[in-house]
Amino acid sequence: MSKTPDTKPAASDPLLILVAALLLLAVAATIYFSATGPGKEFTKEPATHQRPIIQDEPHVVVVTKAVAGGAAEGSVAQAGEAKAEAKAAEAKPAEKPAAPVAAVAAAPVVKPSADGKVHGKVVLKGTPPPEKPIGAAKADVNCGKAHPNDTPTSRNYVVAADGGLRYALVRVVNAPAGGTIPTDKPVVNQTGCMYEPYVSAVMVGQTFVIQNSDSFLHNVLATPKVNKGFNFAQATQGQTNEKSFDKPEIAVKFACSVHPWMSSYMHVLENPYFAVTNDKGEFTLPDGLPPGKYTLEVNHLKAGTVTVEIEVGAGKGAEVTAELAVK
Q1: Would you tell me which CATH number, out of the four given (2.60.40.420, 3.40.1090.10, 3.30.300.30, 3.40.50.10860), belongs to the domain 176-272?
Q2: pLDDT digits over 169-215, tens only?
Q3: Three-state DSSP class for 152?
Q4: What one-character DSSP code corresponds to residue 75?
């Protein structure tokens, strides 16, 4: 009888055992990672390395934000509190400058005067707004030297301590036409880069003088609506030019093309019975008004106009107190 050669079972072959073990390990790993999924603490980002991304408890970072008044809201805070503060700041109304205090002017008061003159006072009722500083005049290389310790301002309401109102025109509106043209020559002066006086008055045909008291160039620009205007330079200190208007007109404006804040106004009237109130609000009309009843008009560039009836006669005049109100 022949002998059958010995054969080992497949399980006893070392190579087969190693391969089987590796296959089992791979299958086990696949089953484990499929069941558990990716880690909760780390998530891989599309980058060259892993870095932690906090997922469970996010913190809110509030970016610093400028709000009204220049203040800044915190750097890190809870979102709700920061938003509430921002809304409160934005909702806060802007502060407004104090408004002028308006008032109602009383009716003019007229008393007889024994000197035959028409005179009196113009008073402002109410508190006007503050005058505005003219910073450009202070900053100008030439004009600033004329104001080393002060800054020029607007002259809308020039008021004395007791309410006397400067620069109001007082005139008789129904005096006989014509009359003697005054021989004096009012001067409109340019000094310290301002026109002085701010308001003046002349009669139709009356000569007036425009003068430059500054040591540098000014330009005189008159822009009437009825009369013929003019425009000329005054380059030297002390230079004067004489002018006149041939038609009645209220508030002819003078300006300077070199210094645009400069302005003044001139009234041109058909009779000589007029005056412009002084720094106390006082006025006196020229003598010579014939006896009769007249309408006296008080006119201010900002406060408006009021009229009053007066009567004059031989040795009998009128003392007038007129009020104008802030507008």
Answers
A1: 2.60.40.420
A2: 999 999 987 778 999 999 999 999 999 999 999 999 999 999 999 99
A3: coil
A4: S
